[in-house]
Design a protein that fits this description.
This protein is of the alpha/beta class and 331 residues long. It contains eleven helices and 13 strands. The protein has a domain of 146 residues: Glutathione S-transferase Yfyf (Class Pi), Chain A, domain 2, CATH 1.20.1050.90. Helix content is 43%, strand content 20%. It is globular and about 70 Å long.
C-alpha cells in the first residue's frame, strides 16, 4: 500500500495509528496524552483484517488520565504489551537512524525489542535484568551510606550474573540470526560487507567482586550487558562514526528487512511493515532495489509525497489530506 500526501497532511499519523493499533504504543512517543487530539479526552483505534486467513479485530483506547484498554477479537488483553506477542509490526521512521548513529543504549533497546519478537519466551529478559541491576545499585548505595553490609549484596550479585549472562547469550543469538539477512539486504541496497558485532563484557561473580570498591564509590554496577554495545559495520568501518547518513539509512532498512524475513519464516504470518518517508532520501537505484524487496512482502505500507517516488505499482494507494483519507487509482 502506498500512502501519498503533502508534507504535514497526516501520512505519519496514519502509520502511527497502525503501529499503536497493532503494538499498543507509538513509535514516536511513550506518552499516551500526546496521542489524544487537543480538546478531546481519549483516542480510539479500531483495526480489522485477517491473520492466517482468520478474521481479526483490534481496538485500542487510550486517554490522558486513564489506563490503556486493548481488545483482540473482542476479548480484553491484560496489558497493551500482550498485543506485541500476538501481532508483529516493524516500522521505519526518519528518527530510526539513531539505531546506527545514536549511543549504545539505543542499539541495546532495538536489539532487545527484536529479541522479544524473534525469541518471545525471552521478551521480558532485559526488563528482569534491569530490575536486578537496579536492586543491586540500591544496595550499593545503602552500603556506602553505612546502613547495610556487603553481605547483603551477594544475592543481588548472583541475580545480576545469572540474568546478565542469559541476556548476553540471547542478544548474541539474535545478532547471529539477523547477520546473514542483514548483510544480504544491505548489499542489495548498495552497502557491501555489512556486519553486526556483539562482544559482551565478561560477567561473573568474581568479576563483580573484584570491582566492588569501584561500584560502591559510584553507586552503580559498572559492568554487564546494560553497558554493552552492538557495532553496526560497513566493511571495517563503524557506521556510527564513519558512515554517511545514506549508509546509516540503508543499515537501518537492512535490519528491518532482515527481521521481517525471519519473522515470516518463524511465525508463518508476515509482519506488518511500515515505512515512513523512506524513499525521498534514496537514489534511483536504491529505490528500485527496495521496491523489488518490498514486492516479496505481503503487508507493507509506504508513505511518500507523490507516487513517482515508488518505482512499482502498489496494490492499493491512499491519498491523505488534512483530516481525510481517500482511495486513489493505483495505476
Amino acid at each position: 500500500m502506498l500512502v501519498t500526501g503533502e508534507n504535514g497532511a497526516g501520512k505519519t499519523n496514519l502509520l502511527e495509528s497502525l503501529h499503536v493499533g497493532t503494538q499498543g504504543f507509538s513509535p514516536r512517543s511513550r506518552m499516551d496524552a500526546q496521542l489524544v487530539r487537543n480538546g478531546a479526552t481519549r483516542s480510539r483505534i479500531q483495526l480489522a483484517g485477517e491473520r492466517a486467513g482468520v478474521p481479526t479485530t483490534v481496538e485500542v483506547t487510550l486517554g490522558a488520565r486513564e489506563t490503556k484498554q486493548v481488545t483482540l477479537n473482542g476479548s480484553p488483553l491484560r496489558s497493551a504489551e500482550s498485543l506485541r506477542s500476538e501481532l508483529a509490526t516493524l516500522v521505519f521512521t526518519p528518527d530510526r537512524l539513531s539505531v546506527v548513529k545514536g549511543g549504545p543504549a539505543v542499539r541495546r533497546a532495538y536489539f532487545d525489542r527484536a529479541m522479544g519478537r524473534l525469541l518471545p519466551a525471552r521478551a521480558t529478559l532485559h526488563v528482569e535484568y534491569g530490575a536486578a541491576v537496579g536492586q543491586r545499585n540500591a544496595m550499593l548505595r545503602r552500603i556506602a551510606a553505612g546502613v547495610s553490609t556487603t553481605e547483603a549484596l551477594a544475592p543481588w550479585t548472583t541475580q545480576v550474573v545469572r540474568l546478565g549472562t542469559e541476556l548476553a547469550e540471547s542478544r548474541a543469538e539474535v545478532v547471529a540470526l539477523l547477520l546473514a539477512g542483514f548483510a544480504a539486504r544491505a548489499a542489495e541496497l548498495g552497502l557491501d560487507d555489512a556486519a553486526l558485532e556483539y562482544e559482551p563484557a565478561q560477567l561473573s561473580e568474581e568479576v563483580l567482586h573484584a570491582r566492588v570498591d569501584r561500584d560502591l564509590e559510584r553507586g552503580t554496577t559498572g559492568i554487564g550487558p546494560h553497558l554493552d554495545d552492538i557495532v553496526i559495520r560497513g566493511g571495517s568501518r563503524d557506521l556510527r562514526s564513519f558512515g554517511s547518513q545514506g549508509e546509516q539509512r540503508v543499515a537501518v532498512l537492512a535490519l528491518l528487512l532482515a527481521e521481517a524475513g525471519l519473522l515470516h519464516e518463524r511465525r508463518s504470518v508476515p509482519p506488518l511493515v511500515l515505512l515512513d518517508d523512506v524513499l525521498s532520501e534514496l537514489d534511483t537505484g536504491r529505490r528500485h532495489a527496495l521496491a523489488a524487496r518490498l514486492s516479496e512482502l505481503t503487508q507493507v505500507v509506504v508513505t511518500a509525497t507523490g507516487p513517482e517516488f515508488l518505482p512499482a505499482k502498489p496494490s492499493l494507494r491512499l491519498a491523505v489530506t488534512p483530516g481525510r483519507v481517500t482511495r486513489e487509482s493505483a495505476s
